[in-house]
Structures are given as C-alpha cells and as structure tokens.
Amino acid sequence: MKKSNLHFSLFVAMMATTFTCWSQVTIELDDFPRQAGFLDTIIRANPANVFAPSEGADQTWDYSALGQAALLTNQWFDAAGDLDFPNALNYEEEDLSFQGFIIPGLSFEALDNDGWYEPGRYLSDVIYPISAITGGPNDSLRFVGGKVEYGERINTIQFPMNYGDEWEGNRTEIVNYELTVAAFGLNKTPGQRKRFGYEHRKVVGYGQLTIPDFDGSAGAPMEVLLLKVNRSNVDSIYLGGAPAPQALMAAFGLTQGSMAADSFYVFYRPAFGAPALNVNLPDNSGGLTAFYRPQSLSLFSAVKEPSLTAYQCFPNPIAGGETLTLQSETPVNAGHFRLMNLMGQVVFSTDIKPELSNQIQVKMPNQMMAGLCLYQVLDANGTLLGAGKLQVQ
C-alpha cells in the first residue's frame, strides 16, 4: 500500500512539473513575417533597469520594469527589383563611420528558406578635406560610392530555429577610398579598408518574456527563444595595393589589424518579424543597454502592417530635365513628390497630381547632382505612401 502511494505521489509530482513548464518554441520561415516596407518603432530602455537574462529551458524573463529613455523610428523600404541586390527584401538608410568620417548609405536585408541575413550595402560617393589632419591645403579623402557586396553570409537567424541550435559565420566588407596627401606623394591613390567579421550565434534559452507596452504598463507574457551572439571585427588598411604605411596610419589614428568585439542577447517570438528585445552586454563604453519593440506584444504589429505602395519608376537611371513616370497597381491621389540624397537632404520636391488613375509624372529639374537618391510619394496630408531608389546620371 505504501509502495502504491509512493508511485502515485511521484506521478502527481511529475504531472505538476509537466504542466508548469513552458512548451518548446520553434521559429520557421512562415513564423517570421517581415515585410518589405514598414515603419519600425523601437524604444531604448532606461539603462538603470536593464539586466542580463538567465540562460536555459523553461525560463521566465520579466523586463516589464524597463523605463523609456527614447523612442526611435526607422523606415524600411521595399527592395523589389533593386539592381544592386536583386534578392533583397528591403533596405534602410544607414550611415557607415570610418574614423569619424560619415559615409551615407543604404543597408540591405534578405530572407529565404535558410535564414534572415544582410547581403550588403550601398555607399554614397563623398569627399572630405583632411588638411586639419595632414596639413596639406588640398589634401582630401574620397570614399568611392557604389555597391558593397559581402563576400560571405552570416545568418542573423536561421530556419528552423530551436533551443540548442548554434551556428557561426564570417564575412568581408570592403570600403574603397582614394587618398590625396601631398606630403606623402599621394594623389588620388586608391586604398581599401577590409573588415573581416566573425559571429557565433546560439539559442541559449526558451520560455516566457514580459516587456512594457507603449504606455509603460506590463504587456502579456509571450513565448520566445533567447539567442546569444558573440561577434568580432578585424580591420586591415591597404593603400596602393599594399598595407598602408605606419606613419600615415598614425596620422589617422589607425592600427593595422585592430579588433573590436562585443556580445549581446536577442529575444525572438514566433509570428513577429523582428527582435522583441535586445540586451547588449557591457563593453569599454559602459554598462548594459536594451532596446525593445512594444508592437511585438500584438500579432497585428508594425512589422506586419501592409507594405508601402509599390511603384514602378522609369526611366531609371534618369537625367536632369527628363520626366519621371511613377506607376502603381492602385489608384493614385494628388499629393507630393520629393527626392532626397543619401544624407537625408531634400534636393527636389513638387506637388503632384495623377495623369491617369494609377500614374504620376514628374518633370525633373534641369540641374541635378549625379548619384543615388531616394524618392518618396506622400499624400496631401504628408503621409508616406510609397518610396524607392532613383539613380541620377
């Protein structure tokens, strides 16, 4: 009798344990509904309430006390038909920094059966005077614009993704430049910064995550996977086909083979096409930081909103004085057209009215700076309806 009661007690204990555990979480491609065009909304948390998450199965992570330090928005654009990256899903405006010099550009993302990844970026062509560094009145540093395709691929996440999965990858990113320094006998001498990046990613936990809603109240717990990322970058600087001279490197504060490394955690939930929460571990610059997306609390989120209207634009490339035609599959109402360079400056804007039910024609100014631009179509109230890339020649 006592033996029977013991077996029964063990059975009850096992059942109780079973029902208090969270179920395993899997994220498939169909569970990652990232759209081509949408407005991403991110909140930077008050660092006072940020902590590193625990790892393991059946975890409960309560970040509901995170305070709001800043509200950030980021516009993603549809990359369908892009000539530089034909397989890309979308892109965002993202500057690249090189020793304090800013290179405006676009960063592309792609999504396929294997994972979510970045195929490359597009950089604007920009020239900086550097007489304050070198002393030469005509010395300059030009960053050569154009397509930068990564030599390899790193999956940000992979499909399917389960607890215990891990993978690694590397890629090489090249920034081309031309350097003019009279004291070194350099006149538009070509060079490169080669950045070798390595990442190790592992799904180190699953369970339930709680984050604040937009109003600061605790949202409903959601089932998530926890991913830990360790990454590093090594920079090599070349000039004229050989490693850059040490004296020149020192003038720019560069060190051959310099390395930077960091680690962070990312929470993903099924049916949401972006991280729900990022927690960055401390480095030399300070303590923990975190960014979260309250829209991840609802499946009807910004990431799942309908894409911006897709426009076919031609001719593209276009020359000054030519007429640009924008055509969509949906009716077009009167509004505004504006053209911006990659630094976000509006270089041309005009009111528009549809020539046909689904077509807009815009006469471009006679004098235009050559290069890649972003166009936007807005309604009469200034709401963004559609956007895309336009090459000016």
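The above is record 1. Record 2 follows with the same two-line structure.
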Amino acid sequence: MTRVAWLTAVTVLSATACQKPETPAETASRIERESAAARTAIEAQNARFAQFMAAGEADSMASMYTEDADVLAPNAPPVRGREAISGMFSGMGGTGSFTLTLTTESVVANGPHAIESGRYTMTFAPGPDSPPGMTASADTGKYLAHWRDDDGQWRMAHDMWSSNLPPQPAPEPGPDT
C-alpha cells in the first residue's frame, strides 16, 4: 500500500471513529422523518399500482417490485422474481377487469427499508374471455409490504395480503367425481 493510500485510509477511519453514535432520541427522530417521506412515496406508488391494475398492465405492475421480490398471495404458492410476478398478473388480467383501492395505515422506514401495513378493497368484473360461470366479486382485506429503496425508487421486496371474507365452501362434487 502506498504511503498516500495508507494515510487516506487512516484519515477516513479516524473521522468515522470520531463520530458519536446516534442517541435513542436522534434515532427516533430520524426514523420519524424517514417514515413520513417513505409514506408519501409509497402512497404515490400504490396509486400507480391501482391504475396499472385497472388497465391490466401486468409488466407495469411487476416493475414496482424488486428483481428478487416475493409475492405471497393467499391460497397460492409464493411467486418469486419480477418476471414470474408479471406472469401472475398477466394471468389475472385475461379474466376480466379489477378495481383496487389501497389504504396505507402505517409506514415505518429505516434507511433503505420500509414496512407498510394497510387495507384494500377490490372488485372484479368478468370480461368477454372469462371462463364460463365466472361471476363478479368484491373483496376487502389487509396487506403487509416490505419496500426497499431501489436506486432512488421505492419498490416492493415482499408483498403479502389476506382477505377479511370467510373462505368459500368447496364446490359440490359433480357427477364425474
């Protein structure tokens, strides 16, 4: 190591070592500021997500997730990765149209990570290419999302939701079963 590089490294380490750690009050204040800023950005992202869902834009919806994101939908296996998430949303879009409202209840952010909890309402109207017998429906529920600052944009890294409605009864066995 050259003398200049060594002196630079010592200077940087000395400056870092001389910094006082945050007090608990300073940490709480910083987290409060970061949470408020993240909430504003996340609520804007949620509005975009609802618009993309209404338009059936699966790729746009998937772009709001990190490359390695996990979607943990109810009654389904986990979906991992932006490409697979786009495929999941594409499959949904071909059946009809959705209207989604997301309501953020809380956001706690610390550096590049934020956790959002909220509730949703969603309606579905079957489209002309829907399977026979598919009917309109409505749902309400809650969600939890882990957001990550991804090059200056908040994207979901983990997305999980569940309905407030009771499970649907199993269909009656048909004559072929």
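The chain is about 35% helix and 35% strand.
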